[in-house]
């Protein structure tokens, strides 16, 4: 089943009266349960593409359908609600709320969804244990390492049981051990909960784990390869 459909997507930025095609006519589909990496040099359009898939940026032309819904048709609170209930985001900069504990950061999205405390507590405890932070639930971000903060960010992205997770350079600030741990966690959750993961990355370790590798250059897809049993 297709959870993401991208149709002739274009994003043009005007920089000093020069038009820059950050994304230039990309057409792609992602099936439920994929574990895919979008790779390419800096400036190739990876992050812009991810942002348009997630509704964080509007395309100049073309269309993104998420679970059959055209993202361009969603505005304001409708877009916010759709993202809240369907999409998990993992950012390179973690984007944790400094005054909240790991537990409070993880359950934040569920609280916005109106879930009750019992459900929030159970899901949060399950996820933080799964990412190896069961004993650090009450620690604030400043007391956690970069790898631990990114694991909290992954737990937060998964807390609402989204259909898919968009991860923008999630391992860029992590050492080798933290990267390996994080990728193992995401792969396990991908297989067990059938959550679709789409990464933008420069990291060969992420590419090696991915079952599909999409290469973009100058805003265009130049190759799309499936491996390791990918459909």
Automatic annotation (TrEMBL):
Pfam families per UniProt: ABC_tran (PF00005)
Statement: the UniProt record of this protein carries the keyword Nucleotide-binding: yes
Tagged with keyword Transport: yes
Domain of life of the source: Bacteria
GO molecular function, one term: transmembrane transporter activity
Gene3D superfamilies attached to this UniProt entry: P-loop containing nucleotide triphosphate hydrolases (3.40.50.300)
Cellular component, GO annotation: membrane protein complex; plasma membrane
InterPro entries attached to this UniProt entry: AAA+_ATPase, ABC_transporter-like_ATP-bd, ABC_transporter-like_CS, ABC_transpr_LolD-like, MacB-like_ATP-bd, P-loop_NTPase
Keywords: ATP-binding, Nucleotide-binding, Transport
Domain ABC transporter as annotated: residue spans: 4-229
Similarity comment: Belongs to the ABC transporter superfamily. Macrolide exporter (TC 3.A.1.122) family.
Protein name: ABC transporter ATP-binding protein
Organism: Draconibacterium aestuarii
């Amino acid at each position: 089943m297709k959870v993401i459909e991208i149709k002739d997507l274009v994003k043009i930025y005007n920089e000093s009266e020069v038009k820059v095609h950050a994304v230039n006519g990309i057409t792609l589909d992602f099936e439920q349960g994929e574990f895919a990496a979008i790779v390419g040099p800096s400036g190739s359009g990876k992050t812009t593409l991810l942002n348009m898939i997630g509704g964080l940026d509007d395309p100049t032309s073309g269309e993104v359908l998420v679970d059959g819904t055209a993202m361009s048709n969603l505005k304001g609170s409708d877009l916010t609600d759709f993202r809240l209930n369907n999409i998990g985001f993992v950012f390179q900069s973690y984007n944790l709320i400094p005054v909240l504990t790991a537990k409070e950061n993880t359950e934040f999205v569920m609280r916005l969804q109106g879930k009750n405390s019992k459900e929030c507590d159970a899901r949060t405890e399950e996820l933080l244990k799964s990412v190896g932070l069961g004993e650090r639930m009450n620690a604030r971000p400043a007391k956690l390492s970069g790898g631990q903060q990114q694991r909290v960010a992954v737990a937060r992205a998964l807390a609402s049981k989204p259909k898919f997770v968009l991860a923008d350079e999630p391992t860029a600030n992590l050492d080798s051990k933290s990267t390996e741990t994080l990728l193992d966690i995401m792969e396990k959750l991908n297989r067990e909960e059938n959550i679709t993961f789409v990464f933008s990355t420069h990291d060969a370790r992420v590419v090696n784990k991915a079952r599909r590798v999409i290469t973009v250059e100058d805003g265009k897809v130049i190759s799309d390869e499936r491996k390791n049993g990918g459909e």
